[in-house]
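User: Is it possible to get a 3D structure for a protein together with its bound compound? The compound here is pyridoxal-5'-phosphate. I've pasted both below.
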Amino acid sequence: MKIFKEELVKSKNYIGGKSIEEVAGPGRKIYKLSSNENALGISPKAVEAAQKAASELHIYPDGTPDKLAKAIATSYDNKVSPEQVLIGNSGSEVIEILVRGLLDKGSEYIVANPTFQLYRILGIKMGAEQVDVRLKENWELDIEGIVNSFNDRTRLLYITNPNNPTGTIYSYQELDELFKHVPEGVVIVYDEVYERYVDNDNYSTAMRWLDQGKDIIGINSFSKMYGMAGMRLGYGYTNDKLADYLRKLTRPFMINSIAIAAGIAAINDGAFIEKSVSHVKQEKKYLYAELDRLGVEYWKSESNFIMIRLSERASEFEEFMLAQDVMVRPVGYFGAEGCVRVTIGTEDGNRAYIKGLEKFLAQ
Ligand SMILES: Cc1ncc(COP(=O)(O)O)c(C=O)c1O
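Assistant: Yes, that's possible. Here is the predicted structure of the complex:
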């Protein structure tokens, strides 16, 4: 149709991990290790708060929403103010807001690949051009390649740290070096949705550079450690200037009351957070030992998933594991050809995965 925007007609939507219903019939027990959800579920306190909020759904939610923004600011020891927090219906929505606010036809944004594919999908819809800078050996940043890609059309630089699907991190030392070269007028989108799983002194959140006065936005999500992927809740934190500007793209009462209540309860449930993080840490030890025993190539992860390399057998592995009741995610789509990303699941799920992998390698 004539009134359709050319860039939207040409664009495609993001291909997300499949749901259990899509791949299995009713009643079949499946270990879903394909979407990096929290193996321990959701905080019981968040569920309780959601149920309570459900009985008051006839009332509009807190419009801003102030209380949730305050709770998020508190989770950063108030190093940011609630006004610096931009809340969305998922981390993906926050990224979409900033893409709508900052990209247009003819502009460019830089992405270090392989990584999360949503950036490409959203950028194309705005008619902007993605400039890909491939990661080096062992998924290290090509700082020189990125610096050479800046020009006067560049608007955004995406840094996904920890990176999805590799699970690896970039050190703050190398990012200090890179960020020195980011020109004025380019916003750094620092996607840190797996940040709470990091156990490495060389890592830093976006806060380090926000403190230095950079134009940077930290993107976070309630889908991972907080175990609320089905709720769709996320946020960004940034400087006042960017927060005020991006907030213009939000709608009144954009976040629903259940998400607000559950989000606040989840932030305040320190015991559940600790349990979730230590579960992943503990299970990593088991998984590394087993992957070593089986001689599978993998990368040490700072996230709640581990990427392995199976080369030309990667997509065959997805089917094979499904027959063993385990869902995994081949990540050629993310630019990591021949690799498979496997979420750290429950103890049982992880053992079922390793058992299946061993069987697969033996055939
Ligand atoms: C790197 C990265 N960023 C952002 C997101 C978006 O998370 P959500 O939209 O569920 O908040 C994901 C989800 O998988 C992700 O892996």
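The chain has two domains: 6-41+271-362, 44-269. The longest strand covers residues 154-160.
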